[in-house]
Specification:
By secondary structure, this protein is mainly alpha-helical. It has a single domain (24-173), classed as Winged helix-like DNA-binding domain superfamily/Winged helix DNA-binding domain (Arc Repressor Mutant, subunit A, Orthogonal Bundle). It has eight helices and two strands. A two-stranded antiparallel sheet has the order 1-2. Strand 1 (103-107) and strand 2 (115-119) form a beta hairpin. Helix 4 (76-83) crosses helix 5 (87-99). The longest helix has 31 residues, at 25-55. The radius of gyration is 21 Å and the shape is elongated. It starts with a helix and ends in an 18-residue tail after the last helix. Residues 30-162 form the HTH marR-type domain. Keywords: DNA-binding, Transcription, Transcription regulation. InterPro entries: ArsR-like_HTH (IPR011991), HTH_MarR-typ (IPR000835), WH-like_DNA-bd_sf (IPR036388), WH_DNA-bd_sf (IPR036390). Pfam families: MarR_2. GO terms for molecular function: DNA binding; DNA-binding transcription factor activity.
Length: 180
């Protein structure tokens, strides 16, 4: 089992000297940040599991349903932008929601290639009983931050990502619950 110190050593973050009095200020800060990130990740996992248990859909799928409720007739591309995910990921998610009879795709007008998305009656019923907020805990908490703190967090996370050897930039276009 990896300890916070061994995790840091592998990535070069915990290389500062440890004095006889204990870890350095930098090491203590690194350990605190790792614990805080773990709390964020676990909270997201817990939220996603509670949504799945309550609704039978993932947190990302629930957010998609809310977006279609707010703006009936969105295209797949529009929905992917609302959810901040790749269009192919949105399309795969819609396949699952369509199989559950929660959404429907409609082709209308002269250009039959244009597909618009709508909730079904069953999808609307699910939303009536669904917990809020639609975008989930992380989005709600970030929206509540003062702009200066949000900007500081953004720049700090950007610096963290720059320092990581193994990173998947495409992960930014997939839901956190990774179910879709």
């Amino acid at each position: 089992m990896a300890t916070p110190h061994s995790e840091m050593s592998r990535h070069g973050a915990g290389q500062d000297a440890v004095s006889p009095q204990g870890p350095s200020v930098q090491t203590a800060s690194v350990q605190t940040v790792i614990r805080q990130l773990r709390i964020v990740f676990r909270a997201l996992q817990t939220h996603s599991r509670s949504i799945e248990k309550a609704c039978g859909v993932s947190a990302a799928q629930l957010w998609a349903l809310w977006e279609l409720h707010r703006s009936p007739g969105l295209s797949v591309g529009d929905l992917s932008q609302c959810l901040m995910i790749h269009p192919s990921t949105a399309s795969n998610m819609l396949d699952k929601l369509e199989k559950k009879h929660l959404v429907e795709r409609r082709r209308a007008g002269l250009d039959q290639r244009v597909v618009t998305l709508y909730l079904t009656a069953r999808g609307a019923e699910l939303l009536e009983a669904a917990p809020a907020p639609a975008q989930g805990e992380l989005n709600r908490a970030l929206q509540a931050l003062p702009l200066d703190q949000l900007a500081s967090l953004e720049s700090g996370l950007a610096a963290l990502l720059e320092g990581m050897d193994e990173r998947d930039d495409d992960a930014a276009l997939r839901p956190i619950d990774n179910e879709d």
